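Subject: design request, 337 residues
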């Protein structure tokens, strides 16, 4: 796992530094070279793991925890040392990019944005590492977080010029689609999400399951909002085949399927979908869970099974969760008492 490997690398780096400080005699040239090579190898692997964690595991979101700030300091200090030594281990573009990644880990957003912008403007080739693609994507994510969706969309569109892989292009399309949706253009969002789904390939490198299932969920949601229930059902069923059973996405897809079946008067199917959602739910009691209890109760009442509806209405009445339909649930409970 990346977290374990990072800790191992930090421990190795600390041990190496301590050993060098405790040397009582001068190092031979060959030994000094060996130690320097070891230090560089450790730091390069750490930097790449931190980048992969940011881009592929955490989907461009990182918290500036104490540990992350320490890791950022190690990376920044290492890059400064390389620059002071006029080392060619990193190109100027790579140094700029990894400094920016470290700035994100340190919570220095303005510094990170400046660095990624500089990387995007660089005329240096980066075909091997997709640095410009990732820099545009991260800048787009930062703009999206600030709710500047138009700028985020523009940045994600620019990233498409540098994507060299079908899964990478699919991710960029999905990001652009997300901003189109946020801007209220559901037609363009649907088109872009569908285009991304045609490119995603789980059997090829750089497949990102997070953006794949997000594309499925948004396609389902757009069709659901348009009352194209048959299309919405197709996408939500694909979600069930693509995510863990105890994930929120699995719960979300099941509850939407329940609503689809309810609207189609397929009450047995609706009850089964809602109840499976509740059974697989592993989160604390919240408004979404309470709302699902309400849908289950309504569905059982439609099936003329008031006694099966009762336990769910009682749960809603007893819940401490703030729920706008609680008075309605209490009223329904009184009617079947």
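Subject: RE: design request

Done. Sequence follows.
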């Amino acid at each position: 796992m990346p977290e374990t490997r990072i800790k191992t690398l930090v421990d190795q780096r600390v041990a190496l530094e301590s050993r060098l400080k405790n040397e009582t005699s001068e190092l031979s040239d060959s030994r000094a070279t060996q130690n320097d090579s070891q230090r560089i190898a450790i730091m390069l692997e750490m930097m790449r793991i931190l980048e992969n964690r940011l881009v592929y595991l955490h989907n461009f979101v990182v918290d500036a925890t104490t540990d992350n700030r320490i890791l950022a300091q190690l990376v920044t200090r290492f890059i400064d040392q390389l620059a002071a030594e006029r080392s060619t281990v990193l190109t100027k573009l790579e140094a700029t990019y990894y400094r920016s990644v470290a700035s994100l880990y340190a919570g220095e957003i303005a510094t990170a944005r400046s660095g990624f912008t500089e990387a995007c403007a660089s005329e240096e080739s980066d075909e091997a590492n997709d640095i410009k693609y990732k820099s545009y994507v991260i800048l787009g994510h930062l703009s999206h977080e600030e709710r500047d969706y138009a700028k985020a969309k523009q940045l994600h569109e620019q990233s498409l010029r540098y994507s060299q892989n079908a899964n990478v292009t699919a991710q960029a399309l999905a990001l652009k689609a997300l901003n189109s949706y946020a801007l209220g253009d559901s037609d363009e969002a649907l088109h872009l999400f569908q285009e991304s789904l045609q490119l995603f390939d789980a059997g090829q490198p750089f497949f990102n399951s997070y953006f794949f299932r997000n594309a499925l969920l948004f396609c389902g949601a757009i069709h659901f909002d348009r009352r194209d229930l048959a299309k919405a059902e197709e996408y939500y069923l694909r979600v069930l085949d693509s995510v863990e059973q105890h994930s929120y996405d699995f719960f979300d897809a099941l509850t939407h399927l329940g609503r689809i079946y309810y609207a189609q008067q397929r009450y047995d199917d609706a009850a089964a979908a809602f109840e499976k959602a509740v059974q697989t739910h592993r989160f604390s009691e919240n408004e979404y869970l309470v709302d699902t209890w309400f849908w289950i109760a309504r569905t059982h009442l439609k099936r003329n099974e008031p006694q099966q509806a009762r336990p769910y209405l009682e749960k809603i009445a007893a819940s401490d969760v703030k729920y706008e339909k609680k008075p309605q649930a209490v009223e329904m409970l009184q009617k079947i008492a």
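The longest helix spans residues 29-57.
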